[in-house]
Design brief:
This protein has strands at residues 3-7, 10-12, 18-25, 34-39, 46-51, 58-60, 68-73, 78-83, 92-98, 101-102, 106-110. Strands 2, 4, 5, 6, 9, 10 and 11 form a 7-stranded mixed beta sheet that branches. Helix content is 0%, strand content 51%.
Protein backbone atom coordinates (compact mmCIF):
# COMPACT_ATOMS: atom_id res chain seq x y z
CA UNK A 1 0.00 0.00 0.00
CA UNK A 2 1.42 3.34 -1.10
CA UNK A 3 1.35 5.67 1.88
CA UNK A 4 2.77 8.94 3.16
CA UNK A 5 2.40 9.64 6.88
CA UNK A 6 3.08 13.14 8.15
CA UNK A 7 3.98 14.42 11.59
CA UNK A 8 5.30 17.55 13.25
CA UNK A 9 2.63 20.21 12.87
CA UNK A 10 1.14 22.39 15.57
CA UNK A 11 1.04 25.90 16.98
CA UNK A 12 4.13 28.09 16.88
CA UNK A 13 4.78 31.75 17.57
CA UNK A 14 5.89 34.14 14.82
CA UNK A 15 9.61 33.86 14.33
CA UNK A 16 9.63 30.31 15.63
CA UNK A 17 10.66 27.08 13.97
CA UNK A 18 9.02 23.77 13.27
CA UNK A 19 10.00 20.65 11.35
CA UNK A 20 7.59 18.49 9.41
CA UNK A 21 8.29 14.86 8.60
CA UNK A 22 6.83 12.62 5.92
CA UNK A 23 7.45 8.87 6.10
CA UNK A 24 6.92 6.94 2.90
CA UNK A 25 6.04 3.30 2.36
CA UNK A 26 4.83 1.07 -0.46
CA UNK A 27 6.86 2.63 -3.27
CA UNK A 28 10.47 3.25 -4.29
CA UNK A 29 11.03 6.36 -2.21
CA UNK A 30 14.72 6.66 -3.11
CA UNK A 31 13.81 6.86 -6.80
CA UNK A 32 11.01 9.40 -6.36
CA UNK A 33 11.09 13.15 -6.44
CA UNK A 34 9.17 14.53 -3.47
CA UNK A 35 7.34 17.74 -2.72
CA UNK A 36 5.69 19.79 -0.01
CA UNK A 37 2.54 21.78 -0.63
CA UNK A 38 0.37 23.92 1.60
CA UNK A 39 -3.17 25.21 1.57
CA UNK A 40 -4.14 28.25 3.58
CA UNK A 41 -7.77 28.93 4.52
CA UNK A 42 -9.71 30.16 1.50
CA UNK A 43 -6.78 29.70 -0.87
CA UNK A 44 -5.70 27.13 -3.41
CA UNK A 45 -3.06 24.55 -2.64
CA UNK A 46 0.38 25.89 -3.52
CA UNK A 47 3.74 24.26 -4.12
CA UNK A 48 6.21 25.05 -1.36
CA UNK A 49 9.33 22.99 -2.09
CA UNK A 50 10.61 20.14 -4.22
CA UNK A 51 13.55 17.78 -3.79
CA UNK A 52 14.98 15.34 -6.30
CA UNK A 53 15.79 11.70 -5.69
CA UNK A 54 19.20 12.14 -4.07
CA UNK A 55 18.50 15.47 -2.48
CA UNK A 56 21.13 17.49 -4.34
CA UNK A 57 18.60 19.56 -6.24
CA UNK A 58 15.84 21.58 -4.59
CA UNK A 59 13.27 24.21 -5.49
CA UNK A 60 11.49 26.69 -3.24
CA UNK A 61 8.59 29.02 -3.72
CA UNK A 62 9.66 32.65 -3.44
CA UNK A 63 7.51 33.08 -0.34
CA UNK A 64 9.58 30.57 1.66
CA UNK A 65 13.02 30.86 0.08
CA UNK A 66 15.70 31.40 2.70
CA UNK A 67 13.41 30.32 5.55
CA UNK A 68 12.41 26.75 4.69
CA UNK A 69 14.69 23.80 3.97
CA UNK A 70 13.57 20.58 2.32
CA UNK A 71 15.65 17.46 2.86
CA UNK A 72 15.36 13.70 2.73
CA UNK A 73 16.83 10.54 4.21
CA UNK A 74 16.59 7.71 1.71
CA UNK A 75 17.64 5.16 4.32
CA UNK A 76 14.71 6.11 6.55
CA UNK A 77 12.31 6.72 3.63
CA UNK A 78 11.60 10.10 5.14
CA UNK A 79 11.36 13.64 3.84
CA UNK A 80 11.55 16.74 6.01
CA UNK A 81 10.60 20.39 5.84
CA UNK A 82 12.46 22.58 8.32
CA UNK A 83 10.70 25.90 8.66
CA UNK A 84 12.38 28.84 10.38
CA UNK A 85 11.38 32.46 10.90
CA UNK A 86 7.74 31.50 10.62
CA UNK A 87 5.21 34.18 9.77
CA UNK A 88 1.47 34.45 10.22
CA UNK A 89 1.03 33.85 6.50
CA UNK A 90 2.70 30.45 6.84
CA UNK A 91 -0.42 29.23 8.61
CA UNK A 92 -1.82 26.42 6.46
CA UNK A 93 -2.36 22.73 6.13
CA UNK A 94 0.86 21.25 4.81
CA UNK A 95 0.90 18.18 2.56
CA UNK A 96 3.75 16.01 1.37
CA UNK A 97 3.49 14.45 -2.07
CA UNK A 98 5.30 11.73 -3.97
CA UNK A 99 4.85 8.26 -5.34
CA UNK A 100 1.58 9.45 -6.91
CA UNK A 101 0.05 9.93 -3.50
CA UNK A 102 -0.44 12.55 -0.79
CA UNK A 103 0.11 12.68 2.91
CA UNK A 104 -2.85 13.20 5.20
CA UNK A 105 -2.08 16.86 5.79
CA UNK A 106 -0.72 18.58 8.89
CA UNK A 107 -2.08 21.80 10.35
CA UNK A 108 0.49 24.47 11.15
CA UNK A 109 -0.72 27.60 12.90
CA UNK A 110 1.56 30.58 13.40
CA UNK A 111 0.15 32.89 16.04
CA UNK A 112 1.27 34.78 19.10
Amino acid sequence: QVQLVQSGGGLVQPGGSLRLSCVASGFAFSRSGMSWYRQAPGKERELVAVINTFGESTYYADSVKGRFTISRDNVKNTMYLQRNSLKDEDTAVYYCSGGDTWGQGTQVTVAS
